[in-house]
Amino acid sequence: MREFVVQQNQSHSVLITGSTSGIGLAIAHCFARAGHHVMLHGLADNETADALRAAFAGYPGNQGFSSADIASEAGCAQLVADTREAIGNPSILINNAGIQHTAAAHEFPSDKWHQILSINLSASFFLCRELLPAMRAARWGRIINVASVHGLVASENKSAYCAAKHGLVGLTKVLALENADHNITANAICPGWVETPLIQPQIEHIAREQQIDLETARAELVGAKQPMARATSPDAIGELALYLCGDFAGTITGAALPVDGGWSAQ
Ligand SMILES: NC(=O)c1ccc[n+]([C@@H]2O[C@H](COP(=O)([O-])OP(=O)(O)OC[C@H]3O[C@@H](n4cnc5c(N)ncnc54)[C@H](O)[C@@H]3O)[C@@H](O)[C@H]2O)c1
Known about the structure:
Blueprint lengths: L1 H8 L3 E4 L5 H12 L3 E5 L4 H11 L6 E4 L6 H15 L4 E4 L14 H29 L2 E6 L12 H21 L4 E8 L8 H11 L3 H10 L10 H11 L11 E4 L7
Helix pairs in contact: 2-9, 4-5, 5-6, 7-8
């Protein structure tokens, strides 16, 4: 019981990849609001980085920012170094950065395949490998991988994305097993459609193809897959991530949690 109280009030250092935008940014706000020290990260120019720092300046914890490109192993190592310098060693890692490209497998460009696999899957592995030894030594850690409903089911034209996200769910399960005896949990969050810039090109594509307005195209995109035809808010993913790092989630590990309006229940 004593341990419960201590953990509940503790501030952690949290690295959230891809937190300049969309889901990652919402997660960062949730953790900062809860008093944690957050490392912001993503591809951003100086102006955006400054605006981001200003937006987080009022929170009680410390913040840092890194623009390391995590498409390479060296970029991941750079991000870890930047994080340790800014907020200390993170005991919570949220692998969220991701990109998308849609094309049929028989026409899928090689460079896009490699990019998607590197950013959406390999970066998560490299960052976990870097950070796990300290979590294991401390006998406490939380890893959250923002996968996708496409880590559970497939859609046409998303071969690289589905391969990467299914891989990320598999990686999550292995990490959960390997670290269960060190009080480290690893879980995947599997969103369906979330209102972020990532889905904008797909909405615009439908609008162009069918010559309809963007709102109608958005409803069509979401409703085609989700029985609940509304996109999830990024904040909902942030709140779930926060819950998974709290004491009541201490035995949730190796899970792939859909937040998808019923998409994967079909
Ligand atoms: N939006 C959705 O509907 C949805 C649904 C399911 C899963 N997801 C997943 O959620 C995660 C976040 O998606 P989002 O919609 O918020 O995307 P987004 O485009 O709004 O943000 C992506 C973030 O990743 C960063 N990033 C991209 N490439 C990078 C690189 N090479 N190095 C460093 N940072 C890089 C960007 O700078 C940005 O901060 C992704 O993994 C995505 O696959 C999104």
